[in-house]
Amino acid sequence: MCSRPDCYIKTYRMFSNDNNIETIAQLAEVVKHYVGLQTEYVKLDVVEKVVRLLTVGTMAILLSVLLLLALIYLSFAAAYALQPYTGMVGAFCIVAMVYVVLLLLCVIFRKRWIERPLVKFLASLLMS
Question: 17 — phi, psi (to 5°)?
C-alpha cells in the first residue's frame, strides 16, 4: 500500500478514466436492450400460447357440437330400430338408460378419462 498522496491520485485516475465510463455506459445499454428483448419474447410467447389455447378450445367446441348432433340422430335411429321389439316407449327408455350408464361411467372415471389427459395437454401446451 502506498501512503503518499500522489499514489491515491494515480489510483483514482486509473479507476475513473473516460474509457471505463464508456464501457459501463455501453454495458448499461446492452443490458437495457437485453431486458427489452426478453420482455418482447415473453409477450410473444404468451400470445402464441393464448392463440393455441383458443384454437384448441374452438376446435373442441366445434367437434363437440357436431358429435352431439350425430349422437342425437344415431339415438333416434337406435330407438326406431328397437321399436318393433320393445315398443316406442321401451326403445326410448333403453336408449336413455345407455346414456345414463355412460354418464355414470364418466363420473366414476373422470380423473382417468378427463382430468389427467386435460392436465397433460395443458401442461405440454403451456410449458413448451
Answer: -80, 165
